[in-house]
């Protein structure tokens, strides 16, 4: 009997570290340079650890599609997605939910920017950009590809490949700004938040590149939680996570996004994004 008790105690001691080692992981679409993302989301991980009482780890990825794949494969249980990548992820993992968005993400915008050599300037109407070289951000970016392409097609009546001398995909908004500023591409589409932040930090030479058009507003970034969180981390975990995100108040942390606060979000908020993606052939 003593041997059985000792064996049982040994089993418990082996299992205990495994249970306590359960880590909550999250990722984010790589919409800016890696160092900026690492600085921001390592801080988020530290904040969530204090609120959730479990180990939290930020897992960087190299592309928007890699963020969606990590979410689908349960390599991460939470992601800071753009509008389109969030829709893609939730379609792949039924039961997943958009739980929070930045206050500004309810009214997001894209900018078209142009190299000074084009002579293009901001006016009342849509700019005459046909025939120039043009770069989007990531192929799966809402603000750097989906919405700009939709409005380009709506205003000019042609697909990008039929409008522009050359079409590129920079990979992220920071690269789009750098490529247009350097004249690698004459015109580009960029997230307005990344543009405004880069200008405020003195990272953009506005004598070489400037905004020539801004889009109507649309819903964009959001925190999406993977289905099954309560089963994996305990009853009430998803609600606890949602509360932690909505109560993120640290000014430095919010400024790194940059967002003034986080507000509730639902899957239904992103139906306009899904509709546009279907309209231009990015979703079936």
From TrEMBL:
- Report whether Signal shows up as a keyword of the record: yes
Under which name does UniProt file this protein? Selenate ABC transporter substrate-binding protein
As recorded in UniProt, coiled-coil segments are: none
Q: Which UniProt keywords apply?
A: Signal
Q: Which Pfam families match?
A: Phosphonate-bd (PF12974)
The question of whether NAD is a record keyword is answered with no
Q: Which domain of life is it from?
A: Bacteria
InterPro entries documented for this protein? ABC_peri_PhnD-like (IPR030836), PhnD (IPR005770)
The residues the entry assigns to the signal sequence are: 1-21
Question: Which SUPFAM superfamilies does the record match to this protein?
Answer: Periplasmic binding protein-like II
Q: Which protein family is named in the record?
A: Belongs to the phosphate/phosphite/phosphonate binding protein family.
């Amino acid at each position: 009997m003593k041997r059985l008790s000792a064996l049982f105690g040994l089993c418990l001691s082996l299992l205990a570290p495994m249970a306590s080692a359960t880590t909550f992981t999250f990722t984010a679409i790589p919409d800016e340079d890696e160092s900026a993302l690492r600085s921001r989301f390592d801080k988020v991980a530290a904040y969530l650890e204090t609120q959730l009482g479990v180990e939290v780890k930020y897992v960087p990825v190299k592309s928007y599609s890699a963020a969606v794949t990590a979410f689908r494969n349960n390599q991460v249980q939470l992601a800071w997605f753009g509008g389109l990548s969030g829709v893609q992820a939730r379609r792949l993992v039924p039961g997943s939910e958009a739980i929070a968005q930045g206050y500004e993400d309810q009214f997001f915008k894209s900018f078209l920017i142009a190299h000074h050599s084009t002579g293009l300037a901001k006016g009342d109407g849509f700019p005459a950009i046909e025939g120039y070289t043009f770069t989007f951000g990531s192929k799966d970016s809402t603000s750097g590809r989906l919405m700009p392409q939709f409005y380009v097609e709506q205003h000019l009546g042609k697909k990008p490949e039929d409008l522009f001398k050359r079409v590129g995909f920079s990979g992220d908004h920071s690269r789009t700004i750098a490529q247009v500023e350097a004249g690698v591409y004459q015109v580009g589409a960029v997230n307005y938040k990344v543009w405004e932040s880069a200008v405020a930090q003195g990272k953009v030479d506005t004598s070489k590149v400037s905004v020539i058009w801004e889009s109507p507003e649309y819903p964009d970034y959001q925190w999406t939680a993977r289905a099954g969180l309560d089963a994996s981390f305990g009853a009430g975990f998803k609600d606890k996570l949602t509360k932690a995100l909505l109560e993120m108040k640290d000014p430095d942390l919010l400024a790194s996004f940059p967002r003034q606060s986080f507000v509730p979000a639902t899957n239904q908020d992103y139906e306009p994004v899904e509709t546009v993606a279907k309209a231009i052939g990015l979703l079936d």
